[in-house]
Amino acid sequence: MQPGPLLPYDPITRWVQRAKYTLSDFGFSYTFQQALSYVTSPKSTLPGSRSFGYYTFDLYAKQLVFSVPSSGTAGTAGWISLEVDGGDNLSTSLRRVNPAAQSSSLVHPVGILSPVNGLYLGELAWQQSFGDGKVVALAGMLDQTNYLDANVYASNQLSQFLNSAFMNSMVLPLTTGSLGVNLQWQPDDEYYFMLGVGQNNPTPGRSPVHNLGADNVSYLFEAGYVPQNVYGLGPGAYRLQPFVATVGGVSQVGLGLNLNQQLGSHWGFFGRFGAGGTTVTNIQGASAQIATGLILQQPLHLAGILAESSTNFLGLGFVWSQPSQSQRPAAHFNEYGLELVYTFQLTATTILRPDLQAIWNPVNNPTVNAAVIFQLSLVTTW
Asked: Per 3-state DSSP, what percentage of the chain is helix, strand, and coil (rounded to 5)?
């Protein structure tokens, strides 16, 4: 539950919180987010486009199987880790009205859309901790975006930015719904190291052993520095992300940088920067990308207009991308985008999120120089 919403009391929130407490007694913890959204794009920017609606959801859950506490450094525990995603469009012709498909842009302005209509399994794995949680290992069917490339201001498509470039780097060959392992080590509160390995050619909704082979594997390393206070500005996180990947039998390297920094009591800054071989970056589609922006928390409260939840924020993001090999030959080699988003806490579990985006020089559309997309989402988090 988020404190300070516009409507402080509602029966749904009490019921949701009671259910979470009850299930936690059995070692089951979860986050269930769902969104009902409306999208429109003016016909002057995307000829023939029209409005449509969609529903999408994400369920992330951990079931504790056993726990051996320790007062020293030998504590261990094991969980089953689960992610279920899905949704459906509320239009009979989503393919024709999808703004990303119409504009042929590299970035997806509606990154929240489910890759399948219905349900699909994003993660089903065993998670084991050692040394009182300083070392954690996961193995099975994994969504590496749950662990790698996190960012406090720009990671969650259901409660933050909607453009795919602000959810995860489109340079990193991150894998979802494929067989893999993830190894984590945090020797100190302010440092950690992580390695993710996975098959990078899974098809959403299909078995993770489909197309299994050594010709399509990603190896991503992340070294993170997470200081609690940087020169009095507040907490931050700085992540260096070298990677090696093999795609279609071709092996190449790349490098990413992910950072976020609080700037005093109300401002925040985030950025993702990456570049890699033109073939191994085919997975997300960008061989080079800069995605950065600013966050202002409680903008209406600061303006003296309305008391707001501390989770309310106004965000402005900018993205520049160059296409990977799979997107070439490109009509435009440099694509640019802006996103302006505002999240408003209606109840302790519900937010309203208006979002405005503009994309210039979409990589694969010589007839469109600019596209404008507006979205309005009602999101609940249980």
From this structure: 10, 50, 40
